[in-house]
Structure formats: structure tokens, C-alpha cells
Amino acid sequence: MTYKEILQARAKKTVATKAIKKFGPYDIIIAPLMTEKSHKEQADHNKYSFKVHAESNKNDVKQAIEFLYRVTPLDINIVNVVFKGRSSKKLVRKAYKKAVVTL
After folding, report:
1. With CB atoms 3.0 to 4.6 Å apart as the test, which of 19, 28, 88, 93 could cross-link to 84 if both were Cys?
2. Parallel/antiparallel/unpaired status of strands 29-32 and 90-91
3. In whole angstroms, what is the distance from residue 95 CA to residue 81 CA?
4. CB atoms within 10 A of CB 76
5. Which H helix or E strand runs over 91?
6. What is the CA 64 to chain-centroid distance, rounded?
7. Where are the domains of the chain?
8. Which ranges of 13-90 would DSSP assign to H, the alpha helix?
9. Using one digit for the tens of pLDDT, what is the confidence trace for 47-59?
10. Separation of alpha carbons 59 and 90, rounded Å
11. What pLDDT digit, counting tens, does each position of 9-33 carry?
């Protein structure tokens, strides 16, 4: 293989699902996120935010959205929301994975 072929083989996208085989679509999408920012994104840009399973990837979320809501997403962005920490015995924010789905 030439160097160019090696780079092309490495750049191919995988469409393999990882977590949907183990858990199912109802376990991948945990809950919709309703904040002021997500509500504005829904109204202006048709983007919806969901709290998703920690082991899921974009392909898992896409299959789960298609199964649950019967729509085809145009784009999916995944964000790991980090643990915020404790401040005077009060839990500020737990860590979770968020998916922003554009319809």
C-alpha cells in the first residue's frame, strides 16, 4: 500500500454502533434537556438537546432518535459535560453526556 492509500483507509468513517446492541434505544436516550439555552436553540435553529448514555456514540444516538421519534436527524453533536465539583457540601453538577440533534 502506498502512503496515500494508508491515509485514505485511516480516514474512512465508521458507522458502527457501540452501545445500542447492549442497551436498546430507550436506554440510550435518557432524558431531554430543557434549559433556556436549549429552548432558544429549538426555536431558532431546530436543535434539540438530550442527556444520553455515557457509552453511546453519534451512530447510537442517530438510530435511537429515528426509532423513538420517527425523524431523520441532519447532524448530531456529542458533548461530555464535566463534573463541576462540590462547594460547601452542595453538589453543583454531576458529569453526563449530552447530544445536540439538528433536525
Report:
1. 93
2. unpaired
3. 6
4. 18
5. strand 90-91
6. 10
7. 24-102
8. 25-28, 36-45, 58-69
9. 999 999 998 989 9
10. 36
11. 877 766 677 777 788 888 999 999 9
Residue whose C-alpha cell reads 432518535 in the numeric block: 65
Grid cell in block for residue 102: 439538528
Residue type for 65, please?
Answer: I
Alpha-carbon distance values, 72 to 36, 53, 61, 62, 92 (Å): 25, 20, 11, 8, 35
Is the domain covering 24-102 a CATH 3.30.70.330 domain?
A: yes
The residue with cell 429515528 is: 66
Contact 28, 20 (CB under 8 A): yes
Backbone angles phi, psi at 80, to 5 degrees: -90, 115
